[in-house]
UniProtKB/TrEMBL annotation:
Annotated protein name in UniProt: GDSL esterase/lipase
Keyword Hydrolase among UniProt keywords: yes
InterPro entries referenced in this protein's UniProt entry, alphabetically: GDSL, GDSL_Est/Lipase, SGNH_hydro_sf, SGNH_plant_lipase-like
SUPFAM superfamilies referenced in this protein's UniProt entry, alphabetically: SGNH hydrolase
Pfam families for this protein: Lipase_GDSL
Any one Gene Ontology BP term: lipid catabolic process
First and last residue of the signal peptide: 1-24
Keywords assigned by UniProt, alphabetized: Hydrolase, Lipid degradation, Lipid metabolism, Signal
Family under the similarity heading: Belongs to the 'GDSL' lipolytic enzyme family.
One of the record's GO molecular function terms: hydrolase activity, acting on ester bonds
Keyword Lipid metabolism among record annotations: yes
Length: 374
């Protein structure tokens, strides 16, 4: 207990220090490009009429400036916003589709041509391609796959090169941060399709995930990305949704084990890649360690409730998603989880600071701050 309290205090001091060092603004990198799932989506799915993975309605956004739902799966800002703020931006770069809604529709070439030019100008300081429901594997979800997100980035790069010149764009990209937050949905899907998978099936899934990650990173590298900020697979077995499905209300250890082994693979993969590609640099933030640590010592982030969702319904307030008629808690800053799957703004704020400039337990081999300054 004493050890836990000391750890909690240490984290609080650290976060206070990080918050102070962030106060002096002015972007420290030219741009930030974001890829991934609902943990990083700032509204792309609002533009997918067919998608059910969306958060463009209340109570989402209740604590966002103006209290409006933006498509973020949270009561307010999310981790990429806080990381962007720490780098001197006002928040996450805009959702790519917010300017490219027509352009996204590849069957209509005419408007694409117009919007590409406008978008290339607007996205010189970054764009967010993340899409809730997506994964590393193309087969995961039915929103914007990682492959498609990278294709959008490639289109954007082409247009920027036409406007600014290839050399300038390549210099800009080599100094920019490429943030990837993905992998949880693949694991969820794997377990919903294989109720009790044997070790061979798990191994095949693991290998497919790591080799797909490898190919996405190489594609981005070949497009000019050099600085990778990776958010690993969270402690997904402890999300309120999975607790609500266990009579005991405990975490689903099998999913946590899978997340842990994927994270081990991701760590080795990036270490290998950085040897292979000399000018590549990376920082891995451990969403897994962060959630695990907050469940043990919630007070470090001012939290009190680490099991139930703030907004939802049923057991753990997590048998149903967060919709306008849901039961929504008042003390949102005390909850680790906003809805059945996603963290609150309070959790994301703490995560953003710890990933930006925290200890190696949470971010390694270097912090995002060191990646920015490298
Ligand atoms: C894409 O464009 C086609 C042809 O213009 C149109 O029929 C379709 O509805 C569009 N899809 C979306 C999602 O906007
Ligand atoms: C549209 O694209 C064509 C060639 O692809 C180019 O010549 C033309 O200037 C573009 N128009 C606009 C408005 O960007
Ligand atoms: C990393 O490199 C080692 C040595 O070449 C190799 O055995 C291993 O399979 C690689 N692992 C990954 C995940 O790339």
């Amino acid at each position: 207990m004493a050890v836990q309290r000391a750890a909690a205090l240490h984290l609080m001091l650290l976060v206070a220090a990080a918050a102070a060092s962030v106060a002096a603004a002015g972007a420290k990198v030219p741009a930030m490009y974001v890829f991934g799932d609902s943990t990083a989506d700032v509204g792309n799915n609002d533009y997918l009429p067919w998608s059910i993975a969306r958060a463009d309605f209340p109570h989402n956004g209740v604590d966002f400036p103006g209290g409006k739902p933006t498509g973020r799966f949270s009561n307010g800002l999310i981790g990429v916003d806080f990381i962007a703020i720490a780098m001197g931006f006002s928040r996450s770069p805009p959702a790519y589709l917010s300017l490219m809604a027509t352009a996204a529709n590849r069957s209509s070439e005419a408007p694409r041509n117009m919007t590409m030019a406008a978008a290339a100008a607007a996205y010189t300081t970054g764009a967010n391609f993340a899409s809730g429901g997506s994964g590393l594997l193309d087969s995961t979800g039915s929103t914007i796959s990682m492959t498609q997100q990278i294709e959008y980035f490639s289109d954007l790069k082409d247009e920027m090169s036409t406007r600014l010149g290839a050399a300038r764009v390549s210099d800009l990209l080599s100094k920019s941060i490429f943030l990837i937050s993905a992998g949880a949905n693949d694991a969820f899907d794997f377990f919903s399709q294989n109720k009790s998978p044997d070790s061979t099936t798990i191994q095949q899934f693991y290998e497919a995930m790591i080799s797909t990650y490898d190919s996405h990173v190489k594609t981005l590298y070949n497009l000019g990305a050099r600085k990778f900020a990776v958010i690993n697979v969270p402690l997904i077995g402890c999300c309120p949704y999975l607790r609500s499905r266990k009579p005991s209300g405990e975490c689903v250890e099998q999913l946590n084990q899978l997340a842990k082994s994927l994270n081990d693979g991701i760590r080795v993969l990036f270490s290998n890649l950085s040897l292979e590609m000399q000018s590549m640099k990376y920082s891995i933030s451990s969403a897994y360690e962060l959630v695990s640590s907050l469940i043990k010592t919630p007070h470090a982030a001012g939290l009190e409730e680490v099991k139930s969702a703030c907004c939802g319904g049923g057991r753990f307030n997590a048998q149903r998603g967060c919709i306008p008629s849901s039961n929504c808690c008042n003390d949102r800053s005390k909850y680790l989880f906003w809805d059945l799957l996603h963290p609150t703004q309070a959790t994301y704020k703490f995560a953003g600071l710890v990933f930006y400039d925290g200890p190696a337990q949470f971010v390694s081999p270097i912090s995002i701050k060191q990646l920015v300054e490298a």
